[in-house]
Design a protein that fits this description.
The protein contains 2 helices and 5 strands, in the order H-E-E-E-E-H-E. It has about 130 residues and is mostly beta strands. The chain has a domain of about 90 residues: Thiol Ester Dehydrase, Chain A (Roll), CATH 3.10.129.10. Strands 1-4-3-2-5 form a 5-stranded mixed β-sheet. Strand 3 and strand 4 form a beta hairpin. The longest helix is centred in the last third of the chain and has 9 residues.
Length: about 130
């Protein structure tokens, strides 16, 4: 395989590729959601593969809120994976909802979380049906 600087790199198939990400619990603490009686669930995903990504290639992931119901009960996130040159390699869209832990039904978002989601909406964010 040829690396990003033109040098040749060989990799054993038994070698594990890992990448670390920072988890920022100060943004939304799941314990606070459980105390409020809700939990997030994925209702479905759509994946579009646009370009091949090779082992050891640097990829950047940009996340956006592209759909949100008025009560925040349903949401859609879009994660765009881009190569170093900026070319899109894949787009993953996840439709999710908050469910009431006791009722096991879609539930409105706690006020503080709804405020954070609304503040982070993408400019082209669509309004989703609530159905809560």
């Amino acid at each position: 395989m040829v690396g990003d600087r033109g040098e040749e790199r060989l990799m054993s198939m038994s070698e594990e590729l890992t990448r670390s990400f920072e988890v920022r619990w100060d943004d939304v603490d799941p314990r606070d959601l459980l105390k409020a009686g809700v939990a997030g669930v994925s209702l479905g995903e759509e994946v579009r593969y646009l370009r091949e990504v090779f082992p050891l290639e640097v990829v950047t992931v940009a996340s956006r809120i592209v759909g949100l119901s008025a009560d925040g009960a349903r949401w859609r996130f879009e994660h765009t994976f881009s190569q170093e040159g900026g070319e899109k390699a894949a787009v993953v869209r996840t439709l999710g909802a908050w469910i009431g832990v006791g009722a096991r039904r879609i539930a409105p978002t706690p006020a503080g979380v709804l405020t954070a989601l609304e503040a982070a909406r993408a400019a082209d964010c669509e309004t989703l049906a609530s159905k809560s």
